[in-house]
Design goal:
6-stranded parallel sheet; alpha/beta; Rossmann fold; 6 strands; Histone, subunit A; 15 helices
């Protein structure tokens, strides 16, 4: 029988990537990314991808699979992740699914919510409204009809806002109520969920530090290079955390200092949405981290408690 998948989840900046790599290194495991932005090539600094040396040492999957100009769906992610999982299972290695995109987690563990088909006329009208009024106006409308979905969807995530409003217009029901009908008793893969959790003040410190480090590491130059490419960035890529704010700086809307501050604020909002999503996964083994906790230290504890999951 295949080994259970080990999901390592948590808010942005919680340290899940470092822990996943530490566990994979100790167990000869492989990592499947659970991140909606790491799928884009050349979007490296803002998505905190592991550097090439680490990726040569530890196989990573579901990273760098599409161009930044391409739109990318949950269904496409599931197809890619499932292929990687099946491939790793043939090698008998532990699989660590690491990341913080809750919708990808839900899709891999419970399946996809298909919903009604797209309506081009409704989408076009909503996109025109967003262009004239801003995505925040559509997000406010979503909050009125579906507060639960609005809590999970970032105000800059126009694609998902439009889809939620489209579903409501087509069905008369909030998308969150339809998604709740997913079969929670149907398990796609045997798995365990390990979550990393920090005190809010510590989480905010990590968020602020990460924002400054991304800029120090060359985020502005990375975004400038992406904008210079022949094909324009996709909607999702343009709205990614860190990228949307630096784009506003490069187009002259705001200063770099203001862009960094906006990255901090928007990341905190995103982390709040992640926490709301993760509450529904009640089987998660949450680990409350001290501010000085290191990945090797947390890995030591997990190997003591759960090492049989990854032993040959």
């Amino acid at each position: 029988m295949p080994r259970p998948l080990t999901f390592i989840i948590g808010c942005t900046g919680s340290g899940k990537g470092s822990l996943g790599r530490e566990l994979a290194r100790r167990t000869r495991g492989e990592i499947v990314s659970l991140d909606s932005m790491k799928v884009y090539r050349r979007m490296d600094i803002g998505t905190a991808k592991p550097p090439p040396g680490i990726r040569r040492e530890i196989p990573h999957h579901a990273i760098d699979i599409v161009e930044p100009s391409e739109e990318f769906s949950v269904a496409r992610y599931v197809e890619c992740a499932e292929q990687a999982i099946a491939d790793i299972q043939t090698r008998g290695r532990p699989i660590f699914v690491v990341g913080g995109t809750p919708l990808y987690l839900k899709a891999l563990t419970e399946g996809l919510f298909e919903g009604p088909g797209a309506d081009p006329a409704i989408r076009a009208r909503l996109e025109v409204e967003a262009e004239s009024q801003g995505s925040a106006a559509l997000h406010d409308r979503l909050r009125e009809i579906d507060p639960e979905a609005a809590e999970r969807i970032h105000p800059n995530d126009l694609r998902r806002i439009v889809r939620a409003l489209e579903v409501f217009e087509l069905t008369g029901r909030p998308i969150s109520s339809l998604q709740a009908q997913w079969d929670r008793d149907r398990v796609r893969h045997e798995h365990v969920l390990i979550g990393l959790r920090r005190e809010l003040a510590d989480q905010n410190r990590q968020t602020n530090l990460r924002a400054m480090q991304m800029v120090d590491n060359g985020l502005v130059e990375e975004v400038r290079s992406l904008l210079a490419e022949p094909e324009p960035l996709s909607t999702a890529a343009r709205q990614a955390l860190g990228y949307a704010e630096i784009i506003r700086h490069l187009t002259g809307d705001i200063s770099l200092a203001d862009a960094v501050e906006m990255i901090k604020i928007n990341t905190r909002r995103f982390a709040k949405a992640q926490r709301t999503w993760f509450k529904r996964f009640r089987e998660t083994d949450w680990i409350d981290l001290r501010p000085d906790a290191s990945a090797p230290e947390v890995a030591d504890d997990l190997v003591r408690r759960r090492g049989s999951l990854w032993s040959a």
